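Illustration 12: DUF2490 domain-containing protein.
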Amino acid sequence: MKRLCVVASLTTGFFLLSLLTSYAQTSITPSTPWGTWFIGTVQLPGGEKKWGGFAEVQARGNAVFHQFFYRELKGGISYDLNEHFTFSLAGGHYSTSDYLALKDGPLNTEKRFWQQLIVNQYLSRLKFEHRYRVEQRWFTFRDGSTPYRNRIRYRLNLFVPLNKPTITAKTAFLSFYDELFLNPKGPTFERNRVFAGVGYQLDNHWIIQTGWVNQTNYNPATFESGIFTPQSATGKNNIVVGLTYRLGRGKSEKLPSQTD
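Figure caption equivalent — predicted structure in token form:
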């Protein structure tokens, strides 16, 4: 019990610090309207067969429920080594447009491939997910340029079931995470994403989640023509609505993490 209290205290402190940091980062930049993220996912859990997979579509709006400018199409396969470790390979296609001129086509598109390891920890009613991801990214911009980039991501996700000790059918739960996006070539700290939300697993198949996510991008410091420009941060708050359908494979607990 003492160990559990220490872990809970440290985790709570971590998330509070992340939330405060995100608000501070956002407040120093020009105010922006709230945006919207819609996420629809179909999952095939590994279960006893160990092999699984997913497919996902996502749309983002610059404002609440309109001004859509961004979409993602993703899919991948996974392998459950055991209840604590899951490996996966996945890829996706991403498109960013100007919501004021959608007919002009995308500003840029991206093809992405990644390798991922998930480590789960179950401490009584506290469920922790550590996600490690390495990404390879191919861009095509409207001007014809085709840069290539790598990225490393780490996400710490905490789940807390409210009416049951495990997250299974008819369970309400809280979800919090903080994710770091790192650029191997520098500047190292590229992005931070913080999420807080509530969800409900209706049965063995359907899960709905809604909440708030703050995404802050960091622009590197520059020195050009004798003028030094310090690092700047641009943050935006968004409403998230996610719906997940799981193909049937048993009734055991499977953490309802977002694949994004």
